[in-house]
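Prompt: I keep going back and forth on a fold encoding question. Comparing notes only helps if you start from a blank page. Show me how you would write down a chain together with its backbone fold. Please set it down just below, with no commentary around it:
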Amino acid sequence: MPSVLIVDDEANIRRMLGRLLQGESYHTMEADGGRQALEQADAEDPDVVLLDLAMPGMSGMDVLRALRERRPELPVVMISGRATLQDAVEATKLGAFHFIEKPLTPEAVLMTVKGAVELRRARDLTTAALQQRGSLQELVGDSDLMVRTRELIQQAAPTEARVLLTGESGTGKELAAEALHSLSRRAEGPFVRVNSAAIPRELIESEMFGHEKGAFTGATSRHRGRFELADGGTLFLDEVAELGPEAQAKLLRALEAHEIERVGGKRPIPVNVRVIAATNRDLEQEMEAGRFRQDVYYRLNVVPIHLPALKDRVDDIPALVDHLSSRLRARQGLDPPTMKDDALELLRRYDWPGNVRELANVCERLAILYPGGMVGAGEIGPMIPRGEPTRSLTDHLDAEERRLILDALETARGNVAEAARSLRTDRPNLYRRMRRLGIDR
């Protein structure tokens, strides 16, 4: 859960911001002055600081200077009701992430905090990569397919070439992207991830390229997009096939001209970003269907790297089980059981539609149910779907969801808004689900 330190001498402001952020699943802390804020920042390690400019004693600008010296990786958002242009410029020069004017609006606060959390996460990922250079080690397996995959990553990483990662869901495309970044000359820069499938299509341009104040309803302040946050580092475009036509056109310009333009903006902003894209779809089929631009595809697909499905490298399963068990011990303090030979043989015979992600779930479940013990085929058997070994529970749920949506669309005679009402959801959410399930309307 991301944490936010709220620094303001007015208790009502602290309470209001606290309730707003807690309602969005943030953990909040409070400080009523500069000294307490510095102590809290050192003791609690927040992800973001919301800092009032005008406070008695130690001013917000003084606190900002101290935080930049002591915690340079910590994003600080300045808030004020009496700020001048000079204040904003000075705060920016000192490294403030953003400047919000009072009266505060929920939209401005939440959008800014979200962007700051993304920046902190990107910086943390970069630090971890620099410390261990271990992302490549997460791509476990001695099969010919995995050896070749790691070789391609090592060859491509030191270059500036764009990479297109393909493969089924759960094969480790994000791990490959992190390895490409951590082994590159950009390793000291940020690693910023964009999951195109998880962002509503009407907001994807704002998230990727940013927006200016007043660009659309709810845009109460300037917002920096992921391209700007990734400047000097790597931008990982996950599920790139989910981008709509407008976002693809803007992406093409960014790739060709190395500049972006915020939504509502009137001037280009130069960006120095290496783009790594990933998809579990066949982009050539998407191009034939008119859903993905050829020019974007050819600019992304400079170095193609395919992440093999687990069913195509089942001999890697024992090594993967050992690796996943070690990770459970280190990260969650669990004591995974030892697997007997018949258990490993059963795992080899399964088709693994969810790939390594599904195997990781099985390992975690076993660690919880049989801590420190021995497990065989009898214990693992109930966890492996039978009868239709190539279909996971997710596949069954997707098939049922697809049937429900198609029935609703047929009843509504193709009217998506009416179908959404009958399914008790909104139209943007229904459109997202239709795109994910490959339903064209």
User: Anything to note?
Assistant: DSSP finds 19 helices and 14 strands in the chain.
